[in-house]
Specification:
The protein is mainly alpha-helical and 268 residues long. It has a single domain, classed as GTPase Activation - p120GAP, domain 1. It has twelve helices and no strands. Helix 2 packs antiparallel against helix 3 and helix 4 packs antiparallel against helix 6.
Length: 268
Amino acid sequence: EVCRDKCDAVLPLVRLLLHHHKLVPFVAAVAELDLRDTQEANTIFRGNSLATRCVDEMMKIVGKHYLKVTLKPVIDEVCYPAETSLGKLSPLWYSLLDRRSCFSSVVGITQENLRYYVDKVFREIVRSSISCPTLMCDVFYSLRHLAAKRFPNDPHVQYSAVSSFVFLRFFAVAVVSPHTFHLRPHHPDAQTSRTLTLISKAIQTLGSWGSLTKSKLSSFKETFMCEFFKTFQEEKFTESVKKFLDDVSSTESKEPSGVSEPVHLKEG
């Protein structure tokens, strides 16, 4: 109501509330207002509201070191494939993507490359809960319980409320734009960007609570994506996501995660 553009207000507001240790109750309050206007559980926290923007900025500030220890090694591996035995995905793979064609036995090795990268990023994420900052866990805990209260008949909404932030708006965005999260010094080249985009899309899909059902697979326009995600139709992936979301939305005290960095709230 005060600012025409939420972007102008959100960052200083988040920094101020972080400084006074009032961010969690504030986010809970604006998220509750946001949920009043949410009619369907599958659209929860998908918009660009004050609540979602505040959580986005909080994750960028508080989760900077968390992203670094979780994703930087594998992002470096994707950006410097010559140091690994895999190499980048071949140009033939990208031409197939542009034509939206199905997999061919000729590109089986590139499918395995993508599977390797997705598997590695996914594995690093789901085992990283011990490194998740306590403040992020407290916010996710509030969002989870507000969502369950708003949609009491939907057992999945408490997980999608958290995954919509930590997977879709945090990890997936950092994978596709590592330079904006200080995981890389500059924008990657076009071919590497395409690889990172594919990995990001896969992480978004795997991070969505619930198994990769036939109906969800049929929603992909590209046949090759359906074929690719069939390799992830195992209960272990769903259970890994569920356990990770449980861990990062818990208020139980965690063991110290080792090296940490101070949060820089103001300059000058």
